[in-house]
Each structure stands twice: as C-alpha cells, then as structure tokens.
Design goal:
With 149 residues, the protein is an alpha+beta fold. Helices cover 34% and strands 9% of the residues. The protein starts with a helix and ends with a strand.
Length: 149
C-alpha cells in the first residue's frame, strides 16, 4: 500500500474528527496502521470496514461496522475509546488516561434496532443507546437531545 494514500486518509480522518469534536488516538503510527486496514478493506469489499472486525462481505449486513462504526460513541463514553481505538476520549487524547480493552458490542447477526436521538437545537440525528455527550454539529450537551424514534 502506498504510504501517501495511508497518510492522506489519516489526515482526512483526523480533520473530520477534529471538526466534529472527536479525538484520534495520539499514536499517529497506530492510526496510520488502522488507516491502511481501512484502505485494504475498501479495495476488498468496496467500503471502509473497521479493520478490527469480521465482515459478512455484504455491505447491508456490515453497515454497523463501516468506519466510524455505530458503536464508536457508546464505546468512547463507556470505555474511553472505540473498539479498534482509532477514536478516543479527550482524556486519552491528552495522555491523562490509557485506553483499555473494549468488549464487542456487536451481536453475531449484526446490530439490533437502536433508538434514534434528535438534537433539539440543530436537528442532528443519531442511532445509539443514548444521546452523545456533545452534539458533533452544534456542540450542545446530551440533555438537549430527545428520543426521535
């Protein structure tokens, strides 16, 4: 894999994370290894599947594990990092905590139906167990979300 493609994807993911209020793992080389895995999966399957999970090889069955996966926010909130540790909490990004092992949330048949939350300020929608701590669009707190579906 060309290093320039890996670096380009890493920079893109980093920029998107920063713009949305997320943090990447402070170990840039680790993140670039994950970026390479995403690119390999893009070539193999046609989508950027999390390199730390098994695929069905069918996009519709894998929608929940296309990066960033549906479990990212809940994993960060509960454990400080997503399953593959690409995305981390503010404390881990700042070096105040270390990432720890994260249990797999995904069932053998893929995801179940999650509630949908709506930000009452900007209308952002997300499907997850609980609303995000901070809206990635307008940056309001979780108490400004309502259950939508």
């Amino acid at each position: 894999m060309e290093q320039s493609r890996i670096n380009s994807l890493y920079e893109k993911i980093k920029k998107q994370a920063e713009e949305s209020g997320y943090f990447l793992n402070p170990d840039a080389e680790f993140c670039k290894d994950l970026a390479e895995g995403l690119l390999v999966n893009q070539e193999r399957y046609g989508y950027m599947l999390c390199p730390c999970r098994l695929t069905s090889g069918e996009r519709l069955k894998d929608l929940d594990i296309i990066c960033p996966c549906d479990y990212r926010d809940a994993d960060i909130t509960e454990f400080g990092a997503c399953y593959c540790a690409l995305y981390v909490s503010r404390r881990i990004a700042a070096g105040e905590e270390n990432a720890k092992a994260i249990p797999e949330r995904r069932g053998s048949e893929g995801k179940g139906r999650l509630p949908v939350w709506r930000c009452r300020v900007c209308g952002y929608l997300c499907a997850r167990e609980n609303p995000p701590e901070i809206c990635p669009i307008c940056k309001v707190s979780a108490d400004r979300f309502e259950k939508f579906l």
